[in-house]
Amino acid sequence: MIEHLTQNQVEAYCLQQLRAAELLSVSDHLGECEACRRRADNASNGNKAFFALRSEVFLEAPEISSAQPLWIHPTVEETAGFVDGRLAGETLQLVTDHLTRCEQCALTVDELRAFKQQIAPTLNYEYQPSAVSIPSEGWWQRMTASLPSVFQRSPGMAFGAAFVVLLLAVGSWLVWQTVREGTPKEELVVSPPPAPPPTLTPPIEAAPVRVVAQLNDGEGQLTLNQEGQLSGADHLPPAYQKLLKEALANRRIEPSPQLKGLTRPPSSLMSSEKQGSESFVIEPVGKVLMTARPTFSWSRLDGATSYVVEVYDEKFNLSTSSGPLTTNSWMVKEPLRRGAVYSWQVKATRNGEELTSPRPPAPQAKFRVLDQAKANEIAKAKRVFASSHLTLGLLYADAGLLREAEQEFRLLRRANPNSEIARNLLRQIQSQRSN
Asked: Residue 435 pLDDT > 70, yes or no?
């Protein structure tokens, strides 16, 4: 049974008066409890003003869907600071977590980032007049231009200057004649008629490049040829295009490193019959979880009157416990640390005796909580590339989320019923889940 938030917690959450750990816990609870979300919606009064301002900036009609859970959205200054990369510390963490759950604010950040990239190139232009070259004067113009000033300063020098000019003119004429006589005269050369142009040979057409993989994915079609060129994925980032190329070329999905160390074969010290009779945990076991507040489930034990769930960290320190329960499922109250590996066990009381499952030498029931960066990346990919089942399936598989990956590959197989590639990828994910 889910415990609801108190009125003080709801009011403190709406007024942004919670510490980081308390705020993350309350946010996770609001993401799962509809009753508490309605209480938070009634106490919040800042959302309409935020979306009205957004509609004025982007010329859109302000809409707040009634189905969208309302919580405290980032302010305009916080949104702009997130786009510019000026946020840090707790504020950056809160805004990042909020964007993974609020589609409206995530859309606003994407539009602000696109608007910034559109106008940024125009802010770097510089305008200045072009330089005009001034033609240089020849020595003859400079000399003749200076003669009048010489005549004005000294009339007696006029005759000498005129004599010098006369000598220069005669010398120049003699030099010109010598050059002219030494220049060979042009002779008329009769050229033979031009040869006819060679016959053009039509170019040899290149052989078409063979297609090695082709899949229907979402609203388009992916094609990979033998030269490694991928078409139909231009809308994807380069890293995702590389991920698709490797999967289509190798037709293989490597096991995720996130799953390493979460499972091991049972010990030979205990027979399978005895181990099966005493082990009654169900899930999560050997999995990577998207949520930080997992739900634990186990099978009922005949004659058991109560159960206690205990969760331990990697150093086998007790992280949280449930207390006595009469049901066979329980959800943790406080979010577990993302990126960490945990183990858990159930203690059942039957006829005054306590039975623990699993217990040595049986393998521990381990699981990993997906780290925050990977969770944010997958949440954005689900929002932006929701129609590309191959992309989402590969991202889930790389993160170790095998159940979610199998769902995407089933949809891909349905869109390509005759494709051996789609059938093989789905078979590999199912094999990894069964191991």
From this structure: yes
> Phi-psi region for residue 77, left (φ > 0), alpha (ψ -120 to 50) or beta?
alpha
Distances (CA, A) of 65 to 10, 37, 73: 21, 14, 14
* Confidence band, pLDDT 50/70/90 cuts, at residue 90: confident
Q: Pick from 53-62, 68-77, 185-194, 215-224 the range whose average pLDDT is largest.
A: 215-224
Query: How sure is the predictor about 157, in pLDDT bands with cuts at 50, 70 and 90?
Result: very low
- pLDDT at position 147, please? 45
Q: How much is the pLDDT for 24?
A: 63
Between 264 and 51, name the one with better pLDDT: 264
What stretch of H or E contains 319? strand 318-321
> Measured between alpha carbons, how far is 71 from 102 in angstroms, rounded to an integer?
9
Put the strands of the sheet holding 281-283 in their side by side order. Answer: 281-283, 295-298, 329-331
Domains in the chain: ranges and CATH: 7-117 (no CATH), 211-250+372-434 (no CATH), 272-369 (2.60.40.10)
Q: H helices of 121-278, where?
A: 139-153, 158-182, 238-250, 272-278
Residue type, 338: R
Beta-bridge partners for 362? none
CA-based angle 102:108:113, to the nearest 5? 130
Highest averaged pLDDT of the listed ranges 14-18, 44-48, 61-65, 95-99: 95-99
Indicate the range of 95-104, 122-131, 423-432 predicted with least confidence.
Answer: 122-131
How do beta strands 211-217 and 295-298 pair?
unpaired
Please choose, from the candidates 320, 335, 318, the residue with its C-alpha nearest in 3D space to the C-alpha of residue 370: 335
Q: Is 332 exposed, middle or buried (0-12, 13-18, 19+ CB in 10 A)?
A: buried
Which of 377, 416, 423 lies closest to 220 in space, CA to CA?
416
Check if the beta carbon of residue 221 is closer than 8 Å to that of residue 232. Answer: yes
Please determine, for residue 204, whether its predicted confidence score (pLDDT) is greater than 70. Answer: no
- The SS3 of residue 318 is strand
- Estimate the share of the chain in helix, then strand, then coil, as percent rounded to the nearest 5: 45, 15, 40
Per-residue pLDDT at 320 exceeds 80: yes
- Name 267's Cβ contacts closer than 8 Å, sequence gap at least 6: 360, 361, 362, 363
Amino acid at 384: V
Where b means 16+ CB within 10 Å and e means fewer, 210-246 reads eeebbbbbbeeebbbeeeeebebbeebeeebbebbbe
Token look-up 């609801």 returns 4
